[in-house]
Amino acid sequence: MTPGNRLFSNGDLADTLNHQLGQIANAVAGWSENELLTLPQADVYEALRARFIIDPIVLDRDGITAEPIEDGLMATRHFGETVNVKVTTVTLVVPITGDQALLGLRPNHYTHNPPTATVRSGELRVNWSGPVNPDPSVVQQGVDKQLSEIQQWIDWSTAQVTVHNEAAGQRIVREVQARRERALANRDLQASLGFPMRKRSDADTYTVPITRRRIVPRRTTPTAQPFRPEPALDEKQYEAALEVLWHQRNQLERAPTTVAKMGEEQIRDLLLVHLNGHFEGQAAGEVFNNVGKTDILIRVEDRHIFIGECKIWRGPKTITDTLDQLLSYLTWRDTKAALVLFIRSGVPSEAIAKAVVKFREHPSYKREGRQVTGERHDFVFTATSDPNQEIKLAFLPFHLPKPRSNS
Length: 407
Fold this sequence. Notes:
Blueprint: E1 5-6, E2 11-12, H1 13-29, H2 33-38, H3 41-52, E3 58-59, E4 65-66, E5 70-78, E6 81-97, E7 105-106, E8 116-120, E9 123-131, H4 136-193, E10 205-206, E11 230-231, H5 235-253, H6 256-260, H7 264-278, E12 288-289, E13 295-300, E14 303-312, H8 317-329, E15 336-343, H9 348-361, E16 365-372, E17 377-382, E18 390-399
Helix pairs in contact: 1-4, 3-4, 5-7
Organism: Streptomyces spororaveus
Protein name: Restriction endonuclease
């Protein structure tokens, strides 16, 4: 005897999931154009995923507890008459996580006898009732059977939910990208018409394409200038610049005797030479320049759209101070940056590990980026001036030890 409510019997899971998928396009269409263009795409994806990605039910078998055992009476039919029989009731409380609505929806695979249990917030209550003074092994077998049946139905449900979540994630990306492209196309059209437009509260980006890896700002040319999108470095160019730094690092590490004689600024200038050998600007000989002592930057008009900071490792505080300095520069949406760290003493792996910790501890740290390896770490930071603006920041460590003293 297993008193409780029938699970998985209040609706069809497939119909519910299909309805959810169909609502994604409407949800994206409901976002304001300004928000969709101003907020980082990752944040838009995350907001939509929170709404449409479903958490499967998970039973915490290790967290099961038992209520005090109770004796009572149960009404039953005996030879055509209703009689009260003494019974013992054992109630197990099973912690659960996930979307509890799934416990009421029938999956594609099922039997005609759904399991029973009582659903409460964050838990299932599974009851076993039987004759008084039951054999413990009989109770254990009965409870295990119920839990196994519930788990089987949850597994069927989870299989469908997993397929749905993958499809929902892909659809979210497609819908958001398509909506952003339409919005940006409309902005480009506005800019090309030549009529003064009302000032928009949001800002767009335009990419800086490459020919001989030639950096040239691309924008439409209206007769008036009501639409002035913020410049940004295209992702391919950003990776191309990092690749140049990467290969140059490998060459420097293979020539320790030569590099050991160089100071921080000399190494930085050498990197600039190689970067400018791969890139050229719209009307200037060098796109990558240095400002002050250590900056490597791409400048379009009066704006910096790529900044690389070179520093010698002198302990974890080096990272904290450099990040503060970098973020004070990076005030434009989708700005990309690199922190090049010269490790000239100590164990490189230990210095890198300590540096990564400082990246994650910084108050502007948001999440890990695309690449996380022993030789490169990518991070996403928020801009100091606007928490909705994201900074893509690559961390490139160089192991350039100084020569040992002969004394």
